[in-house]
Amino acid sequence: MSTLPPCPQCQSEYSYQDGQLLVCPECAHEWSANTETPDADDDARVIKDAVGNPLQDGDSVTVIKDLKVKGSSLVVKVGTKVKSIRLVDGDHDIDCKIDGIGAMKLKSEFVRKV
């Protein structure tokens, strides 16, 4: 008997392993043999501010450096408080609204948790 899981698409019990992938001979669906690894990486990712404090959705932060707003002549000044941040994936990992400027994305290395 095979200890491999059935095909997630057609539930066929005849799946087999080909290198790092599992393959279904009936519907030709291929999937990763280690499905737990991507979920563990998402949970382990912690976004930290400039001094190492972990950030969460809804936190308030203070900008620690003058930041030029790309595409305009506006500047986010040092000490600007930003309320209710939202953490997102990517290079700029904070999504927020700043009074007088509007919606923008910030890098966590330029903020400090209040």
From TrEMBL:
<dbReference type="Pfam" id="PF08274">
    <property type="entry name" value="Zn_Ribbon_YjdM"/>
</dbReference>
<dbReference type="InterPro" id="IPR013987">
    <property type="entry name" value="YjdM_N"/>
</dbReference>
<protein>
    <submittedName>
        <fullName>Zinc ribbon domain-containing protein YjdM</fullName>
    </submittedName>
</protein>
<feature type="domain" description="Protein YjdM C-terminal">
    <location>
        <begin position="47"/>
        <end position="114"/>
    </location>
</feature>
<dbReference type="InterPro" id="IPR004624">
    <property type="entry name" value="YjdM"/>
</dbReference>
<dbReference type="Pfam" id="PF03831">
    <property type="entry name" value="YjdM"/>
</dbReference>
<dbReference type="InterPro" id="IPR013988">
    <property type="entry name" value="YjdM_C"/>
</dbReference>
<comment type="similarity">
    <text>Belongs to the YjdM family.</text>
</comment>
<feature type="domain" description="Protein YjdM N-terminal">
    <location>
        <begin position="3"/>
        <end position="32"/>
    </location>
</feature>
